[in-house]
Amino acid sequence: MVKLIFKYAPSVIIPTMLSLILFIIYGNHLSPSSYGKYNLFMTTVILLDSTLIYFMYGSILRLYNNYHRQGQVVKLFSTFTLLTVIIVSSLFILGVLINKPILSYLSLALCGFSFINILSNYIRAQNNLLLFNILKMCPPIFTLLCILLIIFFDKLSVESAVFSLYGPMLIVSLIIIVIFYLKKKFIFNINIKIISDAFTYGVPLTVVGLMGFIISSSSRYIISFVLGDEQLGYYSFSYKLAELLLVTISMSIVMAMYPQLIKEYEEKGRFKAEDLLKRFVSVHFIIVIPVICLLFLFVDDVVEVLFSQYKDAASLIKFTSLALIFLSLTFYTNKGFELTKNTKQMMFILIWSAIISVVLNIILIPILGLNGSIVSTLISYLIYVVISIIKSKKNFTIKFPYKNILWIFLISLLLCFPVKLISFSGLNNFANTIICIAIYLGLYSFTTFMLIKVKLLKF
Known about the structure:
mainly alpha; 0% strand
């Protein structure tokens, strides 16, 4: 299990490191107001993707084995790719016809973003780890190069940041599609049955993705309208940093887990799959809990040095990370519905959670400001996780390793006290912080290893 996670690690660790570097650059070259506008553009691309494209690539992993047995995986990929082209082209033309250039720009960004997601899931289903890692690493590498060139020759703007993000996605994905075509792994053919199967399985997932978007991101439109772009920038900054550290960890585990979980469920049955999911959840908490502790201990010092424009957002980052704990758990609680193809039930739970989120945002943001959005996100995802666990129990039980979680929490918390007291004379505050983080991680890794060795932590 751990070996499998490490195989997928380059596709997560390297992009995450590059994203953190880009994040530092944005934090120093984009004002909170500009970053708010940039983030709102990205949010709108995700909204369009969730609404129009997600039903396709969201269903690839679940449908792949069936079409592989029929020898039709090329048709599967080709159908989804060509349908994406049709949808994106329609949006682009609509933008031209109604004289709304922003819609045309959004369609081009959507094309790059959606192609990358389709390719990612298709290649992951094939278990082609080398190509998958290349696909995930290349766009952020080229994005960083574009940003550095722009800063060297000119000033970074919202427009250039957007171009640097989505341009490499589109170019890299088109190169891979052309290679697939030359190798006869892509054909100009649309299969109606594949679209029908994707609708049957994927449309509930589309609603799920859309409702997830509403819970996590709809508040940004309300913040922009009620509090303005500058406050949106602070909120987007805090959310993005917490997301990079927490959600990225979850995604790396899920990438490794899901194909194996499907295989376990189909070949060995429900109970073996439940036990496997429980083990992955243990790995999740082993990584996430100490990250939360480190955020609460040192985020003020890090933000003050690296993101001086955003130092007022340090407290937001701490509490946003607590809300995102429950978001990251949804990646695991969803699996019971996805494996049993009971996505409609998942959809209805998320619809209610999304409604609660919107209502809470409308009420709390004018009263509590940015904290209102954090409270809304936390409550909405907590409700979703709890109801998901209860409702999926009939067909697939989500098992939580409570003893492991308790041990991990106690270790992480106890290590906070001595590490926080450490101070090295002659070093500035930031250098002292980096050393303290390294000491914390070293002590935590050693203690965790010993607990696994004596079988107090069990997998």
